[in-house]
Structures are given as C-alpha cells and as structure tokens.
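Late entry, written up from scratch paper. The run itself happened at the end of the previous shift, but nothing got recorded in the book at the time, so transcribing now.
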Amino acid sequence: MPKGQPPVVPDDGLSTKQRRNAPLLAVHTGPGKGKSTAAFGMALRAWNAGLSVGVFQFVKSAKWRVGEESVFHRLGELHDEHGVGAPVQWHKMGSGWSWSRKPGSEDDHAASAAEGWAEVARRLAEQEHDFYVLDEFTYPLKWGWVDVDEVVSTLQARPGKQHVVITGRDAPEALMTAADLVTEMTKIKHPMDAGRKGQKGIEW
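Output as recorded:
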C-alpha cells in the first residue's frame, strides 16, 4: 500500500472515515516468534490513544510473568492516578481467572478455557473494553476446548467499535477468513537453533 493508500476501494456505501474507523479483528499466527509481542505493541498504541485494554492469556502458566504484564499494570496505575492513557485489565487462565476467585487448576484446562471465553463474550456484548488481546487463544480452538464457529459468530456480531487481536499457532481457517488482518510469523532463524536459551528482556 504505497503512501498508506488501499489498492482497492470497495463499493460498500461507506465513507472513507467510516471504513477507517471500523472495528478490527486481527490474527497473529504461524510458527515464528513475535505473535504476542506484536499484539502487545498494538495494545500499547491503543492505550496511548485512550482505548481501554483487556488482556486475556489462555495458556501461559501463572508462574510465567511476562515483562509486558508488569508494564501494562504500571500503565493501568498511571491512568488511575493521573488520568493518562486508559484503563487496563490483565487476566491469566493459569492463575485462575480473577473474576472466578478460585485458584488455577492443572486438572481441567478445557473448562478454564471455556470459562475464559464465556467471560470475553460477555464483555464483548457489554462493550466493556475497546481493545482485547486474546493471547494464545488459537490453542483452545485447535484442541476443541472452545467451539470455533461460536467464537467466529460472536466476534462478527460484536457491537460498537471493539478491536480484537488473537494470537497463537495454527489459527483455524474459519477464524482467519473472518479476520480483517492476518499475519503469519515465519521462523527463519532462532537463537535456540544454536542451543541458546531465552534471555530476560528478549523472551520475557
């Protein structure tokens, strides 16, 4: 897209402004590194633009505290204390979803994932956030823990102007078809190929 101009302008009856401000559904998938990192970068832009952010991590262990989580907690506090940016909420399945007030369980990840999606769907219906990150949500879909068709239907019918970014490998075809933006991360080279473990500040 040279100079940010779309190559084709659809005859959909919408103005340029309406088309530009339409809610976005994005999917970051593929075997390469950077899917979640890119989503959190988008969330950072959203926060700076005054869009409230909700992050839902569906797979990562509660013990795995990524650097972005700490940063977004501080950004949320900055908003609460000084009115800068926008509100931030961060929820992790591995720690037991915060709204359920029960500890995470290693016994039934499928039930926890379904509970997480049900809460996200409720929030979408009530337009609780402006920008959602459903981190590693493709895995519950791939494993059959959450119904793909129901997710796609809910996302397509979401009211208002709510942006949603979903990350994870092996995104279902139906989800990618429904999305406005699909990016596939392809690994060309990785430090682990040379026996190097992840580094603080790079991997987390």
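Residues 26 and 59 are 19 Å apart (CA to CA).
(Scratch paper discarded after transcription.)
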